[in-house]
Amino acid sequence: MLLKLHFFEKYNRFNSRSLDFGPVVLLCLAFVLLSPTLSAGSDYRFVIDQPKILPGLTQTLSEDGKKKAHALADYAFACKLFKDQYALSKKAIRYFVSAVKNDPVAETPLHILATYWKRNNKVDALLENLLPIAKKNPHAIKLNVLVSATLSANERCDEAIELLKNSLKIAGIDSKNGVPAELRAKLILKLVKCYLEEKDWDKGEELLDDALDILDLKDLITTRLAASIFYSNCADQGPDGFFAGWSKRRYRKKLELNLTRLEELCSEVNFDVRTLSPILDIYKRYSMNERAEKLILSQLLLKPNDSQAFILLAKVFDENKKYAAAFRVWKIIVDSPQYANVKRLWKTISKQVDGAPEIYYQLGNAAMKCENWDEAVKAYDWGLLNNPGDPRILFQLGFAYLKMRKFKKAIYKFEKVPNLPDAQYFIAYCYRQLDKTVKAFAAIEASEVLAKELKDENFLSKQFYMEYIYLADKAGEFNKSETMALAQLKKSPEDPMLNNFLGYLWADKNKNLAKAVKMIKIALGADQSNAAYLDSMAWVLYRQKKYASALSYIEDAIEASEEHLVDAVLRDHAGDINDALGKKGMALKQWRLALETYSDDIDQDKIKAKIAKIISKKK
C-alpha cells in the first residue's frame, strides 16, 4: 500500500565633556552657509585662522582649545558636504575623522562614522581610522569601547583587552578621577566580555570582585549585567580540572546573586530594555521562563508606553510557548496610541520604508501559532496593504488559507511568491487536496527544480522524494515515479520505506514481481507489524496468484491497523483476495467496508462494479 504522507514538515522547515557640538555646530553651519568669503570647496580651518573673520583667535585659545575649534570646524564642514550631497562622501568622512582626531571625546562625529561603516560592512575602514586615535587617547572611553568591541568581534581580543585596560587605568575603577560611574561600568562590561572570549576566568572574576566593592558601581544595572553575563558563562563552561564541579557551583551561586540584584534594580530604575537581551538569553538557557516575563513586566510598570518593552515581552511569551499571550501583546501593540512609535522602531530595525508590514507580520505569526487562522489572515492582509509584494507575508497568508482548507485562495497566494521551493511544494499539496493530481505533480516538479537551483539539500530530503514518487504515480507518470524511486534506493538500498514504496508500485503495475517480493521483505524485516508493509506483501502475492498466502498477510494488515480506522485500500485488497479464493460473501463485506471509508486512493466506481458483478451472478 502507498504510505499516507504528510506535507507539513516543510512548514516546520554627542553629549560630551568637551565642547558641546549641538548648538555650536548650528552656529558653525550658519557661518559656513552665510559667509561670502567661503566657497563650497574651501577648507574651513583656514577660514578660522583668517584674522579678518575671527581676529585674535590664535592668541585667545589654548592648544587644547585650538584642537577643539578645529574639531568643530571639521565637523561643520563635513555636515555641509553631507547636506549638499545627501551622502557621506570620502571627503566628508575625512573631515569627520579629523573631528574625532582633534576631539576624541566628542560623540556625534564618532557615532556618524561608526554607523556608516557598520551598516556598509566596512569594519576595516573603522579600525584603520579609529584604532590609532583610540590608542593615543585612552581617556576617550566611548571611543575605546567602540573600537574594542569591533576588535573583539573580529577575533582580535588581545588588542581589545589592551585598549580597555589602558582606558580603565586612566578612568580608575573608583570615582577618584572624576569619571562617571556609568562610563566606568561600560568599560568593565566590555573588558569582562573580552576575558570571556579568552576564557580568562581569573582576571574576569578579579575585575568584577573589585567593581562590586565600589559604592557607586555595585548598584548599577550595567555592572550587575556584566557580572551576570560573566558568571553564567563560567557556570556553563568554566575552568576544567579536579575542582571544576565545585567551581561551577560557586559561579552558579554568584550568578543567582547578581541576577536577583539586577531584577531588584530593574523594578526601581528606568533604562533601555534592549540592554536586557543577554539576560533573557541566560533565563532561556537555564529555563527561568517566569523570571524573564517578570523582568520585562517590571519595566512596563515603570514605563507603560515603552514600545520596545512590549516587543520584548511578546518575544519572551513566544519563547515560553505562551502563544495566546504573545498574540494578545501584539494586538495591544497594534491597537496602542504608541503604534506610530513602534512603526518607527521597526523601520530602524528592519531598514524598511514603513515598519507596519513587519508589525503585522509578527501579529500574524503569533495568531498562526495559536491556530487562530482568521486573525492570522486579517493581520497578513493588513501587512499586504502596506507592502503588497512582501513574499514572507504572501507565503504565510497562503499557509493560513491552506490550514483553513481554502485551497484555491492558498494557491493564489503561493503563486505570487517567487523562486521559493516551499511555495511550489504547498501548491502541490493544495492541488492534491483538490484532486488535481496532474497539476500537483507539475508543482512538486517545479519545487524540485527551484531547490536544485538554490542547492537546498535540506529541502530535497527522502521524505520529499517519496511524495514526489507518490504524486508522479497518481498523475499517471509511472516511469518518472519508478526512475526516481530507483535513484533514491541507490542512495539508501536498505531503507524500508523506499523498498516498500517501489515494491508496491511494481506489484500494482503487475511487473518485476520477484524483485518486488525481495524489496518488501526488506521492509518487513525492519517492521513486521507495519500494516502498510503487510498490505504490500499481500498485494504482490495476489499478483503472483498465491492467494492463500496473500490472504494471511492481508488479514494481518487489517488486524495491525484495527486500533485506528482500517484504510479503504486494505479493504479493497481484502475483497479482491477473498474473491479470488471464492469467498464471495467476505469479498462483498470488505468492498462495502471500503466504500464506507473515505480514501482518495481507491476508485469507488470500480469497487461498485465488482460488487454489482457478484450480486448479478447470485441472481
Quickly describe the structure.
The chain has 619 residues and is mainly α.
Architecture overview:
- This protein is an all-alpha fold and 619 residues long.
- Helix content is 73%, strand content 0%.
- The protein has 35 helices and no strands.
- The protein has helices at residues 9-12, 21-34, 44-48, 57-60, 63-85, 90-102, 108-119, 123-136, 141-153, 157-171, 181-197, 201-211, 215-218, 221-237, 244-266, 277-285, 289-302, 307-319, 323-335, 339-350, 356-369, 373-386, 391-403, 407-414, 421-433, 437-454, 462-474, 478-491, 496-508, 513-526, 531-543, 547-560, 568-580, 584-596, 604-618.
- Helix 11 (181-197) packs antiparallel against helix 12, helix 18 (307-319) runs antiparallel to helix 19 and helix 31 (531-543) runs antiparallel to helix 32 (547-560).
- The longest helix is centred in the N-terminal third of the chain and has 23 residues, at 63-85.
- Mean pLDDT is 83; it is low at 1-56 and 349-354.
List the helices and strands and how they pair.
Layout: H1 9-12, H2 21-34, H3 44-48, H4 57-60, H5 63-85, H6 90-102, H7 108-119, H8 123-136, H9 141-153, H10 157-171, H11 181-197, H12 201-211, H13 215-218, H14 221-237, H15 244-266, H16 277-285, H17 289-302, H18 307-319, H19 323-335, H20 339-350, H21 356-369, H22 373-386, H23 391-403, H24 407-414, H25 421-433, H26 437-454, H27 462-474, H28 478-491, H29 496-508, H30 513-526, H31 531-543, H32 547-560, H33 568-580, H34 584-596, H35 604-618
Helix pairs in contact: 2-5, 5-6, 6-7, 8-9, 9-10, 9-11, 10-11, 11-12, 11-14, 12-14, 14-15, 17-18, 18-19, 19-21, 21-22, 21-23, 22-23, 23-24, 24-25, 25-26, 26-27, 27-28, 28-29, 29-30, 29-31, 30-31, 31-32, 32-33, 33-34, 34-35
